């Protein structure tokens, strides 16, 4: 988790000036159970037989955290990609 203030002043393109924004972490929505890929995967796995597709075992890279900035005046949402957690920590230490 990233230590970020709940609110922060950021430039708003609509207003053309610095405005207070509410900062929240972007979260993935709920998966639709009838999506084509999920449906095919479940169909392939039903019945007799084991795992049919390869399971990814390699270590994943550090994910970049996406922050949602919401302006307080008129509820305009904007997504901002932040740096990796290590890079963010290094920047704050400066």
From TrEMBL:
Alphabetic keyword roster: Ribonucleoprotein, Ribosomal protein
Record carries keyword Ribonucleoprotein: yes
Alphabetical GO biological process terms: translation
GO molecular function: structural constituent of ribosome
A GO cellular component entry from the record: ribonucleoprotein complex
Coiled coil: none
Superkingdom of this protein's organism: Eukaryota
SUPFAM superfamilies to which the protein is assigned, alphabetical: Zn-binding ribosomal proteins
Keyword Flavoprotein (UniProt): no
One protein family per Pfam: Ribosomal_L44
Family: Belongs to the eukaryotic ribosomal protein eL42 family.
Assembly mode: Component of the large ribosomal subunit.
Protein name stated in the entry: 60S ribosomal protein L36a
């Amino acid at each position: 988790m990233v230590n970020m203030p709940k609110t922060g002043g950021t430039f708003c393109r609509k207003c053309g000036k610095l405005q207070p924004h509410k900062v929240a972490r972007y979260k993935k929505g709920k998966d639709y159970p009838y999506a084509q890929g999920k449906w095919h995967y479940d169909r392939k796995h039903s019945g007799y037989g084991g795992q049919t597709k390869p399971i990814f075992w390699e270590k994943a890279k550090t994910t970049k955290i996406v922050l949602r900035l919401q302006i307080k005046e008129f509820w305009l949402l904007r997504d901002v990609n932040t740096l990796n957690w290590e890079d963010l920590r290094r920047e704050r230490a400066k």
